[in-house]
Amino acid sequence: MPRILLAVDGSDTSLRAADVLMQRLNWYREPVELHVVNVQPALPEAVTMFAEGFEVREYHQAEGKKALAPVLEKLDRAKVPYTAHVGVGDAARGIVDCAREHKCDEIVMGSKGLGRIPGVMIGSVVIKVMLLANVPVLLVK
């Protein structure tokens, strides 16, 4: 069974990546095991030192679910089964680690997303994923 990781950051290109992936699912002879991931940036220590660990985890989960929601709604409407994941830390490393953990054969992601400094670092996550990944990466504009 082919395994695909769809990386989602809440951007329009994430939605387009989901559309492209759904159009290509019938290319596979077998059903696809789809994993959808969002990786949240870690909160600064200045914030976490005043919050309980469970509060920080709940915050990251809530923000991750918000970013995943539009894509998961699309997949639900199309009746495409998936497993959703929310990670915390460096986005590129989290995407690649999730792909390795679930033995994914491919990573699908939008080519431009929402970085911490939009417009300045556009593409840095994509470039880092392509450098770190040991599987093909499909970029969608």
Structural class: alpha/beta
Radius of gyration: 15 Å
* Number of helical elements: 5
Mean pLDDT: 87
Q: How many β strands by DSSP?
A: 5
> What general outline do the C-alpha atoms trace?
globular
**CATH topology, what is it called?**
Rossmann fold
Number of domains: 1
Order of helices and strands: EHEHHEHEHE
- First-to-last CA distance: 27 Å
The stretches of 5 or more residues where confidence is low (pLDDT under 50) are none
Report the major sheet: 5 strands, parallel
CATH class group = Alpha Beta
Helix content: 40-55%
Throw out a few tags for this protein:
Rossmann fold; 141 residues; 5 helices; 5 strands; alpha/beta; 5-stranded parallel sheet
Kindly describe this structure.
With 141 residues, the protein is an alpha/beta fold. The protein has one domain (3-140): Rossmann fold (3-Layer(aba) Sandwich). It contains five helices and five strands, in the order E-H-E-H-H-E-H-E-H-E. It has helices at residues 12-24, 45-48, 53-77, 91-101, 124-132; strands at 3-7, 33-40, 83-88, 106-110, 137-140. Helix 1 (12-24) packs across helix 3 and helix 4 packs parallel to helix 5 (124-132). The protein is globular. The two termini are 27 Å apart.
